[in-house]
Amino acid sequence: MADRDILPDTFKPVHYDLAIKDLDFAKWTYNGSVIITGDLKAATKEIVLNVLELTLKEATLTAEGKESKTVQFTEDTKSQRATITFQDEIPASAKAVLTIHFSGILNHDMAGFYRSQYKPAAPAAASVPRDDEFHYHLSTQFEACDARRAFPCFDEPNLKATFSFAIEIPADQVALSNMPVKETRDVGNDKKSVSFETTPIMSTYLLAWAVGDFEYIEAFTGREYGGKKLPVRVYTTRGLVQQGQWALEHAPKIIDYFSEQFDIDYPLPKSDILAAHEFTHGAMENWGLVTYRLTAILFDEKLSDTRYRNRVAYVVAHELAHQWFGNLVTMDWWNELWLNEGFATYAGWLAIDYLHPDWEVWAQFVNEGFEAAFKLDSVRASHPIQVAVRDALDVNQIFDKISYLKGCSIIRMLASHLGVKTFLKGIAIYLKRHAYGNAKTYELWNALSEASGTDVNALMDAWVGKIGFPVLTVTEKPGQITVKQSRFLSTGDVKPEDDQTVWWVPLALRGKTGTQGVQSLALTGKEENISDVDEDFYLLNAGATAFYRVNYPPERLAKLGTQLDKLTVEDKILITGSAAEIAFAGNGSTPALLSFVQGLKGETHVRVLDQALDSIGQVKSVFGDDKQVLGALQKFTLQLIEKSLQQVGWEPVAGEDINRTLLRKRLLLTAVVNGHEEANARALSIYEAYKADPAGSPIHADLRTVVYRAAIRANPAEAVSFLKKEWFTTKSIDGKDICLSAMGHASDVNVIRDVLLPFCFSTSPPAPATDSVPAADMHYLASAMANNREARPLLWKHMRDHWEDMEAKVGGNPIVLDRMVQVSLPKFTDYETLQDIESFFANRSTKGFDRTLETVKDSIRGRAAYRQRDAKQLKEWLCGQGWCKC
């Protein structure tokens, strides 16, 4: 197709027989062979397939009794392809056999077949590779386009096949793959060959295997599948497996839940979970062998922060949703990645809401998911949900908040409109119709239309195919309102060409006179008048189920701030977030936002408070260079939380509601970073006691962030030195992330320049492991520094001056480089830095992060415009309210 760069259709794979052997833990290499049976569409002397960082040694092509050997291999590194040329032309055949012998690299780039380093929690098997500081295990990461790093293959999502896999490993280690073990044979020299049962037909990116010193815990599903309860296992390196118990409590229940909701039984004979020590993303949905970052799957009841309880449960649900949506039915091409990720995000929250209704996860999604998607989609450089993807390097950048969170948002909007039961009935039709195949977005809409009797494509076409989202501007007349939709841009400079889309907008109106509840009206044109509206109270997008902002008149927004008892938790979150972003774009004002937020004084729901404090935080971030304004906003923040702060106290209560625990942490952290003297004194006393006697005075897991931030604030040099040691020695799975995030807030320029930046960007080796953050975790420290006004310019200067070194550190993984650009640069508020960024990248290749770079630049433009426009007005309001003296 013209819009994508894909392989020739000469050969269509049907089955792979892949064998790996000669694992060399000194040179980090291996040998392999793959026998690919397929349909040779036409007579040929050439086969083109995907290869990256492999050495092809010899190949044969056999068909119709004729065999031809290799003449040459021609590799194109840029296109990640190899052309195999054979001696003789081979005739077309439905059962051609391509055999390739090759060698590969056990890289340290978290892509392909790679090695992960770790410090063992218990004595390891004798054969486990190790050096002076680390042990190693092996695993794979193939999505989106990295199966080609591990073995020669036709590495495109719609070139599905079955796979048989075997691997030779040390006799005292464990091998895992998508399917159960078929046979284990002793092959001598303290080695064994492990072969696995053949997979269902699936895409190359879902194949997976791992080798290591693994142990497991096991549970079984409640339902039977084919007459048996399915085994579900959590695997870790030795000594960590009991921390998989929380995940194991959820996984079997989630498998049963989805099997019932989708009306299709889980399709494989087992479900394995593997905690990988080094990992780019949160997790990867390999069919039957899901791999995870440690903090996304392990949870210690004594040592883990409560928020990871929520995270682990959700990520398990998300990845298991993929076993149907993505694995059983796969998008036809990467431009429809959202079909995988948007639905898995929605289904993940649906399952957790079912298992933990007390968590109120849809309020969490409105606070976290909606807002993150809104922010990315409100810049001109955003992209449609369904976005053109030409080649492999384009793919990684669309694993973003548009595919995941906007995708989920519009699915939730549609499910709410159709009714969740009807929606899931349509999903079942879709999955059954396309099982073990590939599908496109319109085929999902067709199934949902069939289930609902509604023309879903007409409703959703613009939401999927067009960039951005609408803001509804409301004007009032006695007894009626006029609602007008237009595209929302955070830069506030919407041009006529930006505003061509007309979205279907479900209004979900509360407050129509003579009616009760929510009216299911919809806006299908640019503008509409609605009569019989209650002049005292009305609300659009009640329950926050639809993906748009509402710009109320200032007086209405202020009045809603006095009618909080009429609003749901989700309503409060969405109104607060909208007021903040509408002020940011210049369609509203910062004083109007702060006036509304004042009405939330004493609010005790953590998600509402999160949204309010995040909104104030954005104002501080943009205008806080003015010390007077910063001080005023700190005082404003402290008075907002004072009442709630007194209620929650410092001591977590056993068995308390999870949202209460999260509320305490947010309130205490807010108090500390805004200069609350009593809170800082208490936090520092806990810190000093811990330093003096770590075993006797441990810091409660949920207070570490609070205590560390107080220490960083009081004495950056000493605290960073201590937290670096804590980062290296902590036994808590989440401890490293928490230490890195705290250190990044150090305000001492010397500490930032001389300690934190080398710590983040140096490589190990030659730097000692204690002085080098692994590539997979750099973003935790960089993100905190980017949010720190003292560190932000130094971070950019270091990246600019050491760009090639940073590229070398992330190695062959463009995802890490893209993420570093994404988290490090968007918080500037001046056009001079924007110009510097543009100049720096003007003469460099940005392939692999070009989309992200454009969104970063748009974010800076919006922040700079906001600062110029509202600085004077904000200061005058703060002074007028008595928060500072002008």
Question: Would you mind describing this structure in some detail?
Answer:
The protein is of the alpha+beta class and 886 residues long. Among the domains are: 1-212, Immunoglobulin-like (Sandwich), CATH 2.60.40; 471-566, Sandwich (Immunoglobulin-like). Helix content is 41%, strand content 22%. It contains 26 helices and 29 strands. It has a ten-stranded mixed beta sheet with strand order 3-6-5-4-7-2-1-10-13-12, with no helix packed on it. α11 (569-585) packs parallel to α13 (606-623) and α13 runs antiparallel to α14. 53% of the residues are buried. The model has no long low-confidence stretch (mean pLDDT 94).
In short:
Keywords: Aminopeptidase, Hydrolase, Metal-binding, Metalloprotease, Protease, Zinc. With 886 residues, this protein is of the alpha+beta class.
List the helices and strands and how they pair.
Elements: E1 11-24, E2 29-40, E3 44-50, E4 55-63, E5 66-76, E6 81-90, E7 93-105, E8 112-118, E9 135-141, E10 162-170, E11 174-177, E12 181-188, E13 191-196, E14 209-212, E15 214-225, E16 228-237, H1 245-261, E17 271-276, E18 283-284, E19 289-293, H2 306-322, E20 329-331, H3 337-355, H4 361-377, H5 392-395, H6 401-418, H7 420-433, E21 437-439, H8 441-452, H9 456-465, E22 470-477, E23 480-487, E24 505-506, E25 509-510, E26 518-519, E27 522-523, E28 527-531, E29 549-551, H10 554-560, H11 569-585, H12 590-598, H13 606-623, H14 627-648, H15 658-673, H16 677-692, H17 704-714, H18 716-729, H19 735-743, H20 749-761, H21 778-786, H22 792-801, H23 803-810, H24 814-824, H25 831-842, H26 850-880
Helix pairs in contact: 1-2, 1-3, 2-3, 3-6, 4-6, 4-11, 6-7, 7-8, 11-12, 11-13, 12-13, 13-14, 13-15, 14-15, 14-26, 15-16, 15-17, 16-17, 17-18, 17-19, 18-19, 19-21, 21-24, 24-26, 25-26
InterPro entries: Aminopeptidase_N-like_N, Aminopeptidase_N-like_N_sf, ERAP1-like_C_dom, M1_APN-typ, Peptidase_M1, Peptidase_M1_aminopeptidases, Peptidase_M1_dom, Peptidase_M4/M1_CTD_sf
Organism: Coniochaeta pulveracea
EC number: 3.4.11.-
